[in-house]
Amino acid sequence: MRESRLKLTAGFTTLLIISVMFIVPFVWLLRSSVMDLSQIFIMPPQWIPKPFHFENFKEAMTVVPFGAFFKNTLIIVAGVLIGTVVSSTIAAFGFSRIKWKGRDMVFAILMSAMMLPGAVTLIPSFLGWKELGFYDTFYPLILPSYFGGGMFNIFLLRQFYMSIPQDFDEAAVVDGATYFQIYWRILLPLSRSAVIVVALFTFLGSWNDFMGPLIYLKSDSRFTLALGLQMFQGSYNAQWDLLMAASTAVVLPCVLVFLVGQRFFLEGITLTGLKG
Amino acid sequence: MIMNRWKYTSAFMVTVLSAVLVMSGCTKSDSSNNSSSSDNTSTSTNNAGTDTKSGEKITLKLTGWGAPAEVAAYKSAIANFEQDHPNVKVEFQSISSGDYDTKLTTMVAGNDEPDVAMMESATIAFPLAEEGKFLNLQDFLASDQQITLDSIVPNITYSQAPGNIIGIGPGPETFGLFYNEDVFKDAGIEPPPSDISKAWTWDQFVDVAKQLTLDNKGRNATDPNFDPKNIKQFGINLPTWWGQYSNFIYSNGGDFLSADGKTFALNQPAAVEVIQKLADLINVYHVAPSPLQSKNIPGTNVALQTKKVAMAIDGQWATSSLAESKVHFNVGVLPVMKEPVTTVVAGMFSIFKSTKHPQEAWELLKALLDPEASLDMLTNGTWMPAPKDWYTDSEKLAKWTKDLPARPSGYQGAVIDMLLNHSHATPTAYVKNFNKIMDIVNPALDKVWLGKQSAQEALDSIAAKAQQQVQGRRDVE
Amino acid sequence: MEMTAKDVQPAGTRARNKFSKREKKALFYGLLFTAPAIIGFIIFTLGPMIASLYLSLTDYNVFKDTTHFIGLDNYTKLFSGEDDLFYKSLGTTFYFVILRVPAVIIISFFLAILLNMNLKGRSLFRTIIYLPSIVPAVASSMIWLWLMNPDLGLLNTVLEWLHLPTSSWLFGEGSVIPSVVLTTLWGIGGTVIIFLAGLSGVPKSYYEAIDVDGGGWYSKLRHITIPMLTPTIFFNTIMTIIGSFQVFSEAYILTQGGPNNKSLFFVFYLWRTAFRDTEMGYASALAWVLFVIIMIFTVLIFKTSKSWVHYEGER
Lengths: 276, 477, 315
Fold this sequence. Notes:
The complex is a heterotrimer. By secondary structure, chain B is α/β, with parallel strands linked by helices. In chain B, 45% of the residues lie in helices and 13% in strands. By secondary structure, chain C is mostly helical. Chain C has 14 helices and no strands. In chain C, α4 runs antiparallel to α11 and α11 packs antiparallel against α14. In chain C, 46% of the residues are buried. At the A-C interface, α1, α4, α5, α6 and α8 of A face α1, α2, α4, α5 and α6 of C.
């Protein structure tokens, strides 16, 4: 894309200013994680801790069994990630690339799942899972992702699928392709950006999910990192220094995943090449 | 090119999938371990009702919240308990304080409540008690050898109705006037007394607060040229939480409800006068910063440390963060309106009626009250002990107050003597339907703090609505 | 070719005829592909939804042993004005939605366009914009309370330094909702990312065509970017509306509904009723009222979408 120098400079400057504002919470978190409790809230703020209290990390990780929680989180996140990506792409295909009677009606009904505040379905859902004997297991956290993977993702992918011209399908149909082949060979590759966005959001959502593990788990041998983060709030005082260190330790993998993940949609898909 | 990228992604997926399979293998072994332990539970429940002989394994479930140091104190109490009761295993579930009620509610809905639970008087403790979910601890206290109502400090038990004790606090918390010693030294002003007989009157207090409120040119609030728009240091941090202003209402002879529990009383002269005087600190004298609601960020320690305020009204627990901040702080008694008073707030431990092992649960509750197990929390300043002799026996007192940064020179007079001689129950302990009443009161008070209405106007305007929510007192028949 | 041509025809035109073989096939495969989602909805969502709908007709309290069916009493109490917090919290929430939705959509749209430019270090910029969405709420809420403290906070300190008027931020009656909106704007990373994914699907050749015609930045935006992104704009608008109506954690963590109930968001009030006051039946009625409101908004936007959302695959 040809863009004038002036425009690039203007864009760069704007982004720089906005980025400074957006990075403040993270920098605040980072520097607080290596600070003494008495330094964290001081005004005017100190941006460079002196001295650095790296032992906060060590202490935070002894207080909360990070290794075990990390493993649990990883199992749940991986399970949810696979389930969501597979089942939401399939469902979105059925809701966008196949025209069937009643499709939009069914889609609208499923959308309603997002509209009822979770506070009132929490207890019925909990009782249901408990009845099935899945209390204190990972099943209530993982299993639903294999059944559609959430309407947010289906809806998002549907929007992208519907933006892809039908020409590709048509060509494939002429070649005798089945719906499944169209899904696998054409739609999935062409909607790569959206699929990666779904995977990214699912990863982060599951990684940070707090309410699900809180309700469905009870043995601390099964707890997740997000639950562990809440363990620094006291009855009267919070151990902010440790909380910040633990938060940083939990957040850093997410930042890495994002840095890597966003590269996948850096370059747009060259639809033109395929269109021929 | 596209296909290549896609292949990488799917290869990545496969790797993740196999990783999950491996890991789920690990969890399976975990869960089999667990099922054997739950077998233990079910065998022990078969013995329910019968006296548990030693050797029969029992599992007690305990839920609580707390910062890591607090949880460590509970765990050490549990370890002591398990040592004394080798047949009992305690499963402690630590739940974050912000979500404790949500979790406990779902547990109750699923008939999975713990045997012993930490509870908070301002939230779901009384709703549970009113449905008869808790054992009456009075029965245990009456027959216990070690712990009785007289052996613990006043106002740390909670009763659903007279004679029906539903919870005992692991320790009290009182309120005091915390201050930065350096500020007083620099200004050449006598600091707040810690001896209640020498306590400041309200006017004396306001006078000192004025002298310690400085604008950016160094003029204090008594100066005619004082600039209230540019204040560098405030005299006092204003309490707008009921726990804090209740001290002054009680001191002035006021209350949340009338003595018979039938009438809303915050719009009565004794309470109104207090609220107005507190609001005047902000809006008339400009000696206190604007009010913040629930969250006091930054906390008292930072406010005093950075000399943003000279004095702060806060709970005893503040000593912990003040000590950690290495502020030269001390504590005095609160100014007295009419009577010397400190409100006592405390969490509590309760026993669910559904427990299969009430006697063991009671023993566990007692172990949790043992100050020996929580010495770290007592010496760092956060907690105070429950048994009275830890205040009166000089040897025990020394264990948690002597030569500690969290226990400055004023502590004995301003905290310990006040607790033993002048304490008042927290309103959440005896005002029925407290939350619903305060849902109506708090917005009205916000208007007072913000200087939009006088205390009398604001409280009168909601009195009728608040009266509709009045359901009586728990401490009268 | 043939299949698509028929597929594209609106279902209604053929309604009178019996299902053709092709339609049967489409129905079969359509249901097959969506079956997991439909089954999942029925198992995991529909049950609890129906349960809560039923509970909204009762006086259900988790701690009570008995529950009575009370018909529409909960709803009567809501609408009769007996519960003035109902209308108050609804009004607060509407104000929040009206303020937040356009702000989120417009700002994230332009941020995405900036981030899609061929700039140095753009992957770093993208990460930075997304960072606040990753920082855990327990940590970020502390930052906000600290930044927005009227007397001790950084924001007012900076404003004073610049000789600009200060604000009470989260602690003033008039400023609390805009302040909450402001804090949520830091979390727009997700919306920006979705726009970015949408932008990556816009063929560069389209822009080149405008270059050839001598069109500038504005005509590219007007004639290519916006029309091509309508499916994404549509998605983000719907999701932002649904999310804004259900705003909860900001009230829970930052303001507790204050001052003077000015930030008493509907779902916060609902949650308080359900879990602090343990009136689950009444809370369920509250939830269903919000459900209907969100549903109406969503359906309206879906209806209008036919006139402004362009799907390349539907032409």
